[in-house]
Amino acid sequence: MTTIAFETTDLPIIGAPMAGGTTTPELAAAVARAGGFPFVAGGYLSAEALAPLVERMRETTENFGVNLFAPNTVPIDRGAFDAFVSALEPVAADRGVAIDPEPVDDDDHYSDKVDYLVDNPVPLVSMTFNIPSAEVVDRLHSVGTQVVATVTTAAEARTAADRGIDALIVQGPRAGGHSGTADPTRSIEDRATVDLVNDVLAEVDLPLAAGGGVDGPESVDELLQAGASAVVVGTLLLLSDEAGTAPTHRAALQSADFDETQLTRAFTGRPARALVNDFVRKFDPIAVDAYPALHHLTKSFRAQAKKDDDPQGLHLWAGTGYRGAQTGSAETIVKELGAPFTRN
């Protein structure tokens, strides 16, 4: 079996690719210095914006990955979408925010970014939100790049294996931020990530990393014992010095006022785990399966909430292990998580 890039690091810890500015170049570099595996988060970026981040990563380490959002458009129920717009408009108006009621669709510059990565190969490319086509996998393989798919079910793992994927990132439902599910319309039941790892390993014979609900070294040990080659951490890095986490988000993660997380489609139209706030309570019951249309619809509202330092209107991504997040250098955090499990 081929050795996967994330299996060759000193520590079996992967810094999750948190798009939207949370995984900064400084955060990725700190993960690499600690001996973990760093990712460049390619989501929400054009190929032109991704390129300098990749080149900066090359200056730090030869062993890293780039994560992309694979397109997965779901047909929009226009009636339900319009009802959501009608509910959001007065709330947005109170904040002085104008919203565009027309659904916006895009593929997150996916084709351009794949072209860029074929022309400028990196060690590993991971995909989330959908399983990449066999054609895309073959193109990346042709330039020596390993291809990894995020999966959330054993069935997705089988599809990935059938398309020639080299390895998997098994994401449990307790992970913070967006679920990588290839079926964003499905109902996602709560379960331990270790149980999902066991299901996937019973279905396919591929190397895998795992994440979701990790709150400390004991969680890391449990997933490694279950057969994962590495453990993905994202929420545990949100309070680190190098993370691009907004101050409002940082404060909420440490506040007693926020004591629950929930999978919700309210912010983007795709299931994502966040701290429960007023926006979730009001809009989750009427949220629709409409990514990226709902993402674009609520974007200006969320930006204003961030500007206003209002945690009740902001997407406060967090996994269930958020109380384990610590302040300080990400390098120290990763070393403390992975030190008991040093590979060499």
From TrEMBL:
One of its GO terms (biological process) is response to toxic substance. Its cofactor is FMN. One of its GO terms (molecular function) is nitronate monooxygenase activity. Keywords: Detoxification, Flavoprotein, FMN, Monooxygenase, Oxidoreductase. Pfam families: NMO. InterPro entries: Aldolase_TIM, NMO. SUPFAM superfamilies: Inosine monophosphate dehydrogenase (IMPDH). It catalyses: 3 propionate 3-nitronate + 3 O2 + H2O = 3 3-oxopropanoate + 2 nitrate + nitrite + H2O2 + 3 H(+). Belongs to the nitronate monooxygenase family. NMO class I subfamily. This is Propionate 3-nitronate monooxygenase.
